[in-house]
Specification:
By secondary structure, the protein is α/β, with parallel strands linked by helices. The chain folds into two domains: about 110 residues, no CATH class; about 200 residues, no CATH class. Helices cover about 45% and strands about 10% of the residues. β4, α2 and β5 form a beta-alpha-beta unit.
Length: about 425
Amino acid sequence: MKEDFLSFIWKFQYFDKKQLKTTNGGLLQILNPGTLNTNSGPDFSNAHVKVGGMLLAGPVEIHVRASDWNLHRHHHDPAYDQVVLHVVWVNNKTVKTSSNQEMLTLELKDRVKKELLFKYLKSGTSNAKIPCEGQLDRISSSSYNKMLDQAIQERIRRKSQEIITLLKRYSYDWDLVSYLVLGRNFGFHINTVAFETLVAIVPLSIVRKIRPNLFQLESLFFGQAGFLQRITGDRYYRRLQKEYEFLEKKYCFRSTMMKKEMWKYLRLRPSNFPSLRIAQFASIMHHQDFRFSDIRESATADIFRNLVVQTSPYWNHHYDFGKKWEGGSSSLGKSSRENLIINTAVPMLVAYAVHTGQSDCHVRAIGWMKDTPPEHNHMITYWKDKGFEVPSAYHSQAIIELNTQYCNLRKCLGCAMGQSLLAGISKL
């Protein structure tokens, strides 16, 4: 038994309310359970109850055991003196306020359906991918869509807050933060940390200085990434080494150079090798004067769909230094461009909306997600196989959030679908 379950029971009043009495025998009538408080203080605010015919209005505090009141030291805290009702699973102790007034207490352990309790306890121990796996056919489309709307808002809010933290660190330089976020996302999950490190040690100011020269950009990024430390290599490799030696002396880079071991290759296809991704990123910096205003002023996400990625000819025939491929392509694939829309353009635009209060930017960002096809991974496939529609990135991103932040953590009581299933049991 956990407090979140008890709060859920109280919030939705999923217990037998016939002949309610407080533990000291007073007749109890619940007029309004109040509003869940997500800040410090009592668990619910603005509740209205009648005890023995007397109307009481104020906070409600929830505990598994009545003795938790003292354990949490509420008996010494005047902020809890205004609590009108103490709702507990088991009343194992009479407790008082800091002013020595006995707390009115409601015990619920004999008033909740056993089926509801069993279902809740089972959800926390299930080994299934998601706790309600065996009951998905009972979930309505409205509950599904409600939860996805909640999940996607939480996801983009969290991502935008991460960007705002970066903006504070870099004195609200939107261009620099856009560059850093784009670079981080160019790691495409497997090499996110490595790419994040790389763009942090290749200053945007220098990238802009040498931007007209793609070869210099490649030597700069590959050199800083730790790729140009081998003694031997083909002609193109040696040319990059020589150019990087010049740039390193000019800009004093060597002390910040990465170790090549930071880059991951395991189980990656050649088209996802970090060497090719670095060449693509250098190309983007060469062909586009990448600025946040391009995102802010764009009516659609085509700024990312139309990114010009034309690497040096070397990469048309190589996926790594000295490693040729036949029939490969150095261009940035459609799914990769869409990934950048989801993880770069949308969070940046939402962060700008949060920072400036321009709600139209937030609406536009949501529209971009709905216009972008969904990702393809095992989580998305799982929900589609269960008969749920995933028509866009808006839905697939919400499902990722649902799985990582709710299902995997067994937070069923915070999920609209979990709540609807438990509510169905309570009404049996």
